[in-house]
Model the fold of this input.
Amino acid sequence: MPRTIVLLTDFGLRDAYVGQMKGVIHTHAPGAGIVDLCHQVEPFNILQAGFFLAASHPHFPGGAVFVSVVDPGVGGDRRIVLLEKHGQFFLAPDNGLLTFLLQQSGPSLSRDVTPARSGDASATFHGRDIFAPLAARLAGDTPSTQFGEECELKSLVRLPGAEPMPTPEGVSATVLHVDRFGNCLLNLENEAWGGRIFQCQRLAITVSASPPRSLCPAYTYERLERGQLGVIKGSQGFLELAMNRKSAAAELNLTPGGAVSVRLDRS
Done:
C-alpha cells in the first residue's frame, strides 16, 4: 500500500498549482493518499514552513512522505534534499526549511536528490515537475537508496535566528507563526522552556523599543483576565503569547519573524 503523502506549500488555493501537483502524484502513484497540511504559508516564509513541519509530523503515520515546497530559490543552485527521520521522509529544498526537524533528537540521514538538469522541468515550478514525481516514487516501493547519495547533515542549510538566544535577563525569541486568533507562537519549545518560565515569580516581555509589558503564565486562555497578556504552553509544542479573546499579535504589533525579549525573574 502506498505511503501517505503530505503537502506543505506557500502556493495558496487561488491558483491551479496545488491541483497540478496532486495530478502528477496521482499519475505516478494512483493509490497514494494525499493530505494537505497547509498551502497558506506566507509567500517565501521558510521559517513559518519549517515550524509547521516540525510541529505537525508527529501526528502522521510512520513512513509518511512530507513534500515541503516553500522555495524562493527555485530554478537556482539550491539542492533538493531528502531527510529520513522519525521513521518518515521529508523532501524539501535545502534552504533551511528542515532546520527545526534537524534540531530534534533522534537519528537522521540525508540525501542529495537534486536531479540532473532536464529540459522537461520548468525553471519556476519544481513543486510539480520535480518534487511531485519524487514523492510519488518514494510513496511506492522505490527504496530511498535509489534517490541519491548521502550527504552530511552538517552541510544542510540552517536558518539564522531559529534557535532562541539566552540572555543575562532571560531569553530572546522569534515569532514563528501568528495563528488566526492572534496567538504568537515562539521558538521556545514547551519541553525546554516551559518549566523555566512557569517557575518564575515575575515575567516581562519587550518588543523593539517599547516599554516592558508584564507577562502572566497561564495554562488556558480563559485563565487570563481581559486585556492581560499571557504565555501558554501551546498545543503545537511551543510556547505562545496569548490573550483572552483578543489578538496578542495586534496588541504587540508582532508578525512572523518578529523578535521579543522575555525577562525571567525567579526572586
Q: What stands out?
A: The longest helix spans residues 126-139. The radius of gyration is 20 Å. Helices lie at 17-28, 46-56, 99-103, 126-139, 190-198, 248-252. The first strand starts at residue 5 and ends at 9.
